Amino acid sequence: MEGIILRKGKEIITRRLFIYFLLSLCLFIAIGQLEHYINVPYDRTGAVKMRRIIDAMLFATPVLFCRKRRILLPYLLLLNLYLLSIIWYFRTYVTIMPLSSYLMFSNLRGLGGSVWHSIHLKDWLIVLPSLCFVFFYIYIYRNLKSVIAPCTSVIIVFFIGVLASIPYWPNKRPSYDQPLHRFSIIGPAAFKEYGIINYWVYQIKLQRSVSNEEKEWAYVFIDELESRQHFSNCNSTENSRKNLILILVESFQSWTVGMKHEGIEITPYMNRYVNTQGTVYFPKVLSQVKDGRSSDAQLIINTGFLPLNVGAASSLCVGNEFPSLTKALKTKGYTSVSFICDGEDFWNQGATSIAYGFDKLYDKMQGSAAFKDADEKLFEQGLLHLKDMKQPFYAQLVTYSSHMPYTEPTIVDSPLLKEDFKDNEVKNYLIAIQAVDKRIARFIDGLKKEGLFENSIIVITGDHEQMTYNRYEGREQLVAEDCFVPLIILNSPLLSMHTDEVIGQEDIYPSLLNMLGCCDYSFKGVGESVFGDSISNYAVFRTGIATGGENVPKFTKQYRKNCWKLSDILLRMDYFASH
C-alpha cells in the first residue's frame, strides 16, 4: 500500500513539474518575442537568456499551486495583457511603462486611437505560446487536480529568487554598471538586459524613503545650485505686471518651425512671430519629460523640477508641497487659470492644478467637438474667459489636436495633402502642426481684438518630442538634437544673448521667474535663467544622452546630470513640506 501511495505521489509531482516547465518554456518564448520588439541596442548579451529564463519561471509559478483552470486561465490572460501593454507603451513613449501608471485608468479615456495605433498584427506572436499551452492543458493534459508538495514549490521559488538576485551580489563592477543605475539611465536597454524581475526591483526600490546619504547630498547640492543661479534685469520688469499666457502645444517640435517641404511652409504664422520685434526665440530646447509625458512638462515649467526617475509625479507626488510659478506670481497680485481639453482626472490634472497653486482649472474645453477640432474650442472658450478676467493673470492653455496617432489629416485644406511622403504618419503630423499653428494665430488675433495682446507676454512651447526629426529624415538612430522643442516668447520684456545655444525644459521656469520680476522667490528651480550673463549650453535627455556646445567643461556636464538626481530626491522626500 505504501508503495502505491509513494508511486502515485511521484507521478503527481512529475506531472505537475512537467506542466510547470512547459509553461516556463512557452513564457520564455513570449518574453523573447517581446524583447525583440523593444528595438533598442544594449551592451551585453551573455546573461540575457538566463534573465529571460528566470522571468519565465517566475511567471509560471502559479501552476505549482493552482488546482483549477478557472484560476490559472484568467491569470494567463492578465499576464499576456501585461506583456502586450509593455510593447504598446514602448511604441508610443519609447520607454517601459512604470508600474504606477497601471493605476491611472482614467488616462485611457480619449486615447482609443493612440492605443489602437500602437497595436500591430505581429503582436499575436507574444500571445501564441500561451494559447498553445492552454490548448494542451485543456484538451490533452487535463488531469492536474492534486497540488505539488509544498516543499517542492518552496524550493523552486527560492531557486528563482537566488538566480534573480545574482546582479546584486557583491562584485567589482562600478556603480554606473549596476542594474539600478542602468535602469535609471537607459531603461529599455536595461529592461532587455536584466529582465522583468529586476525592473520590478528597480521600481520598488525607488518607492523607498530617501536615505540620509541622499538627503545630505541634496542639501549640499542645493547650496551649490543657489550659488549658480544668476538672474538679471529684475528691476526693469518688477512692476510691469503684464499678463502671462502660456500655450503648451502637444508634440510641437522645433524642426517644424521655419521648415519648408517642397516650398510649403509648415508653420507660416510661427515663422512670422519669431521674426517679429520683441520676440525671443529658442529653437534648441531639449525635451526632458519622462514617464509622466505631458504632465511632466507641466511639472517642469510650473515648478522647476525635473521628473521622477520612475513614475509620474502627477500620480506619486500629488500630495507634495510645491513651490511654483503661480505661487510666485500670486505674491505680485496675479490670478491663475489652466485650460485643458481632457477631464480633470487625466494625469490627475485636477489635483496637480491645486498642488501647483492654480486658482481655477477649466477642463473638458473640447466640449462635444471632435478630436481634430479640440484646439479650436480650447482657444475660443479660453478667450471668452480671459477677456473677463481681472488683470494681471497667468493663463495656461494645453492643446490636444496634435496628439498622436497620425493616421489621418486633421484639416482638409492643407497644401501638404497633395505631396508625397515616404512616411504617411510624418505627413499627417506636419498637417496637425499646420492646424495648431493656424489656430494659435487666430487666438492671438483674438487677444489683439480684445485689447489683451499688448499687455501680455505670450509663451509658446512644446510639451515633449513625438515625431522626432530622425523620423522625418528616415534615420534609425535617435540623437538628442532630434528631440528639440521650441520656446517662443512674444512681447518679451527681456532679451537674451543665448538664443542660439542649447537649453533644457528645466530652464523655462527660472527664465519665466526672471522675466516677470520674481527674482526673490524662494525656489528658482534646478535650471538656469536664459536671461543671465551665461548659461551652460548643455542639456541632458531622459535616457542620459546629451547635447550642447563643443567646449562645455566636464564640471558643467556633471552638474546638469546631477540636476536629475536632485529633482528625484526632492520630489520623493517632499522637500518643501519642511523647508
What gross morphology would you assign? globular
Number of strands: 12
Rg on CA atoms, Å: 27 Å
Largest sheet: 8 strands, mixed
Q: How many helices does DSSP assign?
A: 21
Proportion of strand residues? 5-15%
Neighbour order of strands in the largest sheet? 6-5-7-1-8-9-4-10
Give the overall pLDDT as a whole number: 85
Helix content: 40-55%
Q: For the terminal residues, how far apart are their CA atoms?
A: 75 Å
Structural class: alpha/beta
Uncertain ranges: 4-9
List the helices and strands and how they pair.
Layout: H1 2-37, H2 48-60, H3 62-65, H4 69-93, H5 112-118, H6 124-139, H7 150-164, H8 179-185, H9 187-205, H10 212-228, H11 234-237, E1 243-249, E2 260-261, E3 264-265, H12 268-274, E4 280-286, H13 294-303, H14 313-316, H15 325-330, E5 335-340, H16 349-355, E6 360-362, H17 374-386, E7 393-398, H18 424-449, E8 456-462, H19 469-473, E9 484-490, E10 503-504, H20 508-515, E11 538-540, E12 546-548, H21 554-572
Parallel strand pairs: 1-7, 1-8, 4-10, 5-6, 5-7
Antiparallel strand pairs: 2-3, 4-9, 8-9, 11-12
